[in-house]
Amino acid sequence: MKSKTKLKMISTEINCIVCFKYKTRLINETCLECISCSGKEGYSTPSTAKAVSRWFHQSRNYEYLNPYKCRYCNKYHLGHDKYAHAS
In terms of CB atoms within 10 Å, which of 27, 73, 82, 83 comes out highest? Predict the structure, then answer.
């Protein structure tokens, strides 16, 4: 009978190139938190984010910018609604 060998996942912490914190889950040397928040404006309330979204739509003709609450920083960012483009 063959013996089963259990594989262990080794997680080493590496520095994120944006925030320089040690993280185990990185994408292209950037942690998930920085991918979600870096370079994006954070708004404290959903109404402020919605007002900015309307301003972008009216003044710059940006469409499908919707506020969403970030699970990392607990602020609201603007993003494209993936369901608005679905056909």
Answer: 73
How far apart CA 83 and CA 87 sit, in angstroms, is 8
Q: pLDDT for 19-59, tens place per residue?
A: 888 888 888 888 888 887 888 899 999 999 999 998 888 88
Give which of 5, 37, 44, 41 is closest to 18, Cα–Cα: 37
What is the per-residue pLDDT across 9-22, written as a single tens digit (0 to 9) for each?
445 788 888 888 88
Domain ranges (residues) in the chain: 14-80
- Check: CB of residue 78 under 8 Å from CB of residue 67: yes
Q: Is 76 helix (H, G, I), strand (E, B) or coil?
A: strand
Which H/E stretch holds residue 47? helix 46-60
Terminal Cα-to-Cα distance of the chain (whole angstroms): 54
What span, in angstroms and rounded, lies between the C-alpha atoms of 3 and 8? 16
